[in-house]
Amino acid sequence: MKKALILVAEDDVDDRFLLQTAFDEGGDHELLHFVENGVELIDYLNAISDEGGNSYPEIILLDLNMPKKNGKEVLLEIKQHPVYKKIPVIVYTTTKNEVEVRKCYELGANTYIVKPITFEALRKVVESIKSYWLATASIPALHDS
């Protein structure tokens, strides 16, 4: 069975390490591909598109507070694209502000998760993401645009 590819836009090296560790501890060994900012995220998706679009990520974990192009700018760009808009985007950020949450949903976020404070809580969040987005949800094929 093909391993799920998760694209993670996260500029903090410690958060990347913790996410990788939490996903690895689950035992399913999803493939996480990390980018450090919004420009890299869009470049990554465009490179897949240029290669024929057969290896898009199943989900995108998107931090809001990134250099070069922030998460809301990237979210808007993804959700306006005819193919990329089908990729579920999980906003994964430290910002717990009702205005920010509402704005992200208005821009097309599929869900909004505030980064947990403890590693144990992070493991539970990762298990919830995997259980719902990789095992339960039905997501349209991206190459059928």
Automatic annotation (TrEMBL):
Keywords linked to the UniProt accession: Phosphoprotein
SMART domains recorded: REC
Protein name, entry field: Response regulator
PANTHER family from the UniProt entry: RESPONSE REGULATOR RCP1, RESPONSE REGULATOR RCP1-RELATED
Domain of life, source organism: Bacteria
Residue span(s) of domain Response regulatory: 5-130
Residues annotated with 4-aspartylphosphate modification: 63
Coiled-coil features, chain-numbered ranges: none
Organism: Chryseosolibacter indicus
SUPFAM superfamilies for this protein: CheY-like
Keyword Phosphoprotein: yes
tRNA processing among keywords: no
